[in-house]
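S.,

Sequence below, as promised.
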Amino acid sequence: MRKNRFGLLFVLVVVALLAAQCAPAATPAPQETGKTYKLAAIFPGVITDADYNTLAYVGISELQKATGVQTAYSESVAVPDVDRVMREYIDGGYNIIWTHGGQFLTQTVELAKQFPDVIFIGEGDAPVADAPANLWMIDRNFHVGFYGIGALAAKATQTGKIGYLGGLALPFSYAEVHAVQQAIKDLGLNVEVKAVWAGDFNDPTKARQVADALIAEGCDVIMGSLNLGMFGLFEAVKASPTKVLVTAKYTDKSTYAPENYMTSLLYDFAGPLKDIYAKIQAGETGGYYPLGFATGVALQTPLKNVSPQIQAEMDTLLADLRAGKIEVVKDTSEIK
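The prediction came back faster than expected:
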């Protein structure tokens, strides 16, 4: 269902909680002479999830405040429906279409080829081969942040066993696990990584069952790469008879398991969206926009439930990551 950004006023509570993660609003910039833009965003889930979709809603809200561009969005769009929804927006005069989710990328690329006068913004985990000139590609680069997550987990474990709990076994998820393994190897630590997938990013019950199994196998740190499934992981670590620490993804989730929570890999789409929009105004209809520590990614600090020594060591490691002193390999090969 199409909604104007001024609808659903209750969402502003969520937006306010996440405002600290967003780039500050800038003075509205004039649009390209004779060109008026209207941006429509398509989300795979609800904007009230305090997670991946909320971040996208914050992104278009901040963009509208900064530039005055007209925006609209559709939430909970299934993959089979995304082509139709994009076409409806194009028929309605929207000339920038943002699909928020790698599952939409194939359809986004195909439609970009059919509508060369419309600018498309897609997301994925690698550059698009032979990308059309009217496609902006946001590369999420989840693996870069998971190097830091893996280093932290390896330093914090007391059992020498850490768990990775994902939703679906996808290339970006494999890359996250490989980055964790690289961090452990670079640090020279004897730590075992148990990587498992719940089969769903948004099922707390399945996530709880898999997390319980990891805990039973001796994992005392579990790295979550989930959406709503994180709630099941939080319940598992809180119910554990032994101390189990946890990391999250996308947003600050420290209130859900404060005695177990260490950090979250934070993502911001407001800053990158403003950057891309400014480039569009300057006449750049397409390009490649990789996310990283300088563009939308941060490890939440100060860390929680860790020793001052680990905090100091991680401060140094994160500084090296931000400075580019550590090259994190992007390996999307299947985890055996």
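The chain has ten helices and 13 strands.

Coffee later?
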